[in-house]
Amino acid sequence: MNSKHQCIQLNDGHFIPVLGFGTYASEKVPKKMITDCTKLAIDAGFRHIDAAYLYQNEEEVGLAIQSKIEDGTVKREDIFCTSKLWSTSHQPELVRPSLERTLKRLQLNYVDLYLIHFPVSLKPGDEIYPKDEHGKFKLDIVDLCAIWEAMEKCKDAGLARSIGVSNFNRRQLERILNKPGLKYKPVCNQVECHPYLNQSKLLDFCKSKDIVLVAYGALGTQRYKYGVDESAPVLLDDPVLGAMAKKHKRTPALVALRYQLQRGIVALVKSFNEERIKENMQVFEFQLPSEDMKVIDGLNRNFRYFSALMFEGHPNFPFSDEY
User: Which family does it belong to (predicted)?
Assistant: First the structure.
């Protein structure tokens, strides 16, 4: 396996590429650009594509994957495709139909990884963010273990090779791990993780349970419609990262990504710029010495870009715990 396609083994025996291409885009990004950039990413060497129903562009991602299979760039088995169960489909009877719709949109027979996107449940329906007449979110209460059992059935049916979670804290992971009759452990927990929020305690916990940490927001600068403060600090402008980038003759983005890979974390990176998509592959071309890793550790300030405070009142809100 060449350096471009370095992988980590998951606890169910499957392998996940350590660098993934994220496909979330704001509403301002034209849908066609998602297809074009996902194709560019595959051409550049990305084999791990991270999608989600929430992003409302699974069709565009699927078109890109199919196009690269049809032109002979990759085979289906070369691609590791992730998608996610959204909070309006947490009722156990809705889990499999939701995944089946995702597969139809992606034009795939299975996803390599299916995640519970967020532990907070919302009322079922067609709206992604269902609200009442007062503009408040319509929350739902669904037992996390019941959702997990429905996820296990999706794996048994061959619709998802591996199953995991996203945005779960330690307590919520333990609920699944301690579930009576647990059939499959989550293979991963996808969480916001970057030098300003290095998740060291959650990482140690996950490693102790053979769960891979997958980092979204690895470059720290996403601005979501919900829950991100426009005045938040820009991670890639950090002078420490800037100095380190100069020292290694790389960009601050590559230094931030390399930091994650050397911690045993799978890093997702998103770009709609062809040069940067190609440049991100250079993360395999250099190493950070241990003293540089310690300096970057020192940048941690437990700062979240995506705080999801609109769900704070829900009993399964994950970010009130320390980790």
Answer: Belongs to the aldo/keto reductase family.
